[in-house]
Amino acid sequence: MGSVVIGGIAPVEEQVERGQYWALALSAAAFATCFAVWTLFSIIGVKIKQELSLSDSEFGLLIATPVLTGALSRIVLGLLSDRFGGRRVFSVLMILTSAAVYAVSLVSTYPLFLLAALGLGFSGGSFAVGVAYVSRWFGASRQGTALGVFGVGNIGTAVTTFGAPLLVNAFGWRGTVQIYAAGLLAMGVIYYLLTREDPARVAGVVSQRKLSDQLAPLAKLQVWRFSLYYFFVFGAFVALASWLPRYYMGMYGLSLAQAGLLTTCFALPAAAFRALGGIISDRIGARAVMYLTFSVSALVCFILSYPETSYVVQGIRGPIAFSFGISLPAFVVLTIVLGFFMALGMAAVYKHIPVYYPKHVGAVGGLVGTIGGLGGFVLPIAFGVMNDLIGVRTSCFMLLFLLVAVALAWMHGAIRLMERQRIAALKTLPQLPEMAELHDWNI
């Protein structure tokens, strides 16, 4: 094995060789467990909606509330991981959150459900912890792949959308919540017992920096640009994973189990191919991956946003009637395509962070994850409000089309601006427009 630089710190080759893949595998499994818990309200929320006779807006807030905590906690958890180590923070997070998950099964009023959902949502903050921990085990040339593999933990969404309806039918929704709480507790204990501290921390070369130093990169525009990208590729993914069961039931008249199964068709490829996104980003560059992701996503969202419509044209020989609508099979295929490219985009965004900010992975990764997570909070609420106000179910995809179009335009605009400013000095563009700041270019 060649020399490996870990997050800008001197290599500790023997420790890396012994533990890097074990650390990656356990971290991915822990993240999958946390992600399964984080999206649990996408299934049990449907039952709660029926019990409490909630409106679409109230339902949207309910399923989005866990996402809010998961999003806002990522900066703090990222900072804690940089300071105390991802292994300890990850374990404590899972153990404490399992108590909040169990509390969901004990409450019965809407305000208390929202409060319990806030506690459950801390499971979503696990991503920032895992990124800080895993990135220290791999060199810069392999971090995109490693973080892509870690991101496969998104498969927890598919586990919930497929398995939770079966558990609900067998044990009821409250029993399902208790099973999830026990699983999260067990994973927290297992993770602490079977993982080790990252090599840099073992070697004692992790410096304790001031909070102001840790947060300094957050003032850079490129960090916020990464955040906008992640708001769509991750935030919209989480939002759709929570919203699609309800969408399938309302739009196509499916049962909860059927809706959960078809939502799995969206969530599973999005999780499974995140590793592929990391590999491609390492090989051809994250900018190309982001272009492909935004372009295809914009096209798919535009098609999905078009509501079922009937037309009557006054022809020469009389009225000519025709209609347009997306059939259930076509809708499923389009969501699979959308989920696939979202997965590629998630990995491409996080390819940047340990490369550009090796000493601030927790802080920068936490902010990007926070903004992305806020997308998962804001968008379901917006979907519900738009349903109530506009009365068109496809309005959720109208909003997503607008969002991805803005992200694509901003990215392309940054690239074109860099071309105009530096065309005389460069024969080829850097891999990413965000690299401009590394060369002291102001764009």
Helix and strand topology:
Elements: H1 13-38, H2 41-52, H3 56-84, H4 86-104, H5 110-120, H6 126-135, H7 140-151, H8 155-194, H9 199-203, H10 211-215, H11 221-252, H12 256-272, H13 274-284, H14 286-305, E1 309-315, E2 318-324, H15 328-356, H16 361-390, H17 395-422
Antiparallel strand pairs: 1-2
The tally of structural domains comes to 1
Gyration radius (Cα, Å) is 22 Å
Q: Looking at this structure, what is the CATH superfamily?
A: MFS general substrate transporter like domains
Count of DSSP E strands? 2
Strand order of the largest sheet: 1-2
Element string (H = helix, E = strand): HHHHHHHHHHHHHHEEHHH
So, CATH architecture? Up-down Bundle
Helix percentage: over 70%
Biggest sheet: strands, sense, closure?
A: 2 strands, antiparallel
Beta-strand percentage? under 5%
Structural class: mainly alpha
Distance between the termini: 39 Å
Oligomer: single chain
Shape: globular
- What is the level 1 CATH name? Mainly Alpha
**Average pLDDT over all residues:** 81
Low-pLDDT regions: 1-12, 438-443
CATH topology: Growth Hormone, Chain: A
Q: Give the count of helical stretches.
A: 17
